Prior knowledge:
This protein is of the alpha/beta class.
Amino acid sequence: MTSTKTPNDTPVATTAGPRSITGWAAQSKGAPLTIWSYDAPALGPDEVDIKVLACGVCHSDIHTIDSGWGEATYPVVVGHEIVGIVAAVGPHVTNVRVGDRVAVGAMCGSCGGCGHCQRGHEPVCAHRVFTYDAKHANGRAAYGGYAEAVRVPCQFTFHVPEALDSAECAPLLCAGATVYAPLKRYMTPGARVGVVGIGGLGHLALQFAKALGAAEVVAVSTSTRKKEDAGKLGASQFVVLDSPAAFKAHEQSLDVIICTACSHEMPWNQYLDLVAPNGTFVVVGIPEQEISVDLKRLVFWQRALAGSIIAGRPDIQEMLEVAAKTGVRPWIERIPMAKCNEAIDRMRRNDVRYRFVLEN
């Protein structure tokens, strides 16, 4: 196997043939991750091999390890906030070259030909392929970024702006994309934007709302614990909803709410009442159990309840450029890839401020 040097002197393999890839896998539901290797076939004509430099730890990873959103296929290698160096390319790849620094998000495939894909809405393609716990169109299992390398179609790689550090870029690929897309879709000039849940997604939503020109950016929480952080992240107001009276005081005060919280025990109807007439409540965090809402709260005030899943390819590349230019950055803690179980255990305890990034 030959090698080359990238501009940052990171050696990368140049073989496009079959190879063994070592990562950290859950072998069963809720199990700790263990070192595990799988045999990756030769690169397809439009596929790339990426040496993983950094991978963010997302709550989706834990939901998948635990089969919280449905039974996962084990062993599973999670991780879909990936930044790395292109190590090898298939013969038809033209958008990236060996040595390029690229990113991969929560999707690594779609049909490419349907109306959704043609409009840049790949996340709702009927043939979408997620980056892990899924199968590529050719039947090959998709494994994620808690590993030394990943192999994915080149169409789902993104160029990383020079201004973005690799570890700081990683969380943007899911957490950033997930909040950027609905803000772009639903936020209008002069909008009052609320963010429910100041965590991995919420702390980026505050920053992007400000960067995209919201008139007011309101952090919504159940305690004052993160008030100082919210101000540093761009919030112009911090609202504590710890009683029915507090909810009542802020009814109809926000034009758009990005809800990153995902507890089925939240008082969802009271949160809906925070939305102004003709406003939109956007859910981006997925509870593991069903919830119920009072539809009268939507109909009588012409509110919309919307869901949003990650972002299409054009929006992801645009989001990276916006972050690079406006200074939007995740607050991260860097952890060696070999300590991925420590990161997961701490995330389960909400002991993170606000994103772990695993580094090789």
